[in-house]
Specification:
By secondary structure, the protein is mainly alpha-helical. It is built from four helices and no strands. It is elongated and about 50 Å long.
Length: 97
Amino acid sequence: MQIESKDINENLICVFVVLGTLGVYHLLSIETNIIPGLFHYLPRMLVPPLFLLSPGVVCGCIFAMFTRNIFKILFAGIVTIILWIYWFSAIFPALIH
């Protein structure tokens, strides 16, 4: 019974970490322009990959504090990247116009 409870807790933590990472990245990059300001000093070719991949890396690092399952960590990072790309390219521009 504890194994199922542990899995449910890890899955809930995963959902909250993904949503929290997306919320913080939305606030820091779209609302305040802090993250694009950090990328200002990087070469131009590195900015798009880092801007798109950094939420997934941060989410994976945060979620790694709660679980040792590498598959779940990678899955959380990949889901965060996909949701970030979807939010940044489809949902947020539709809300602006």
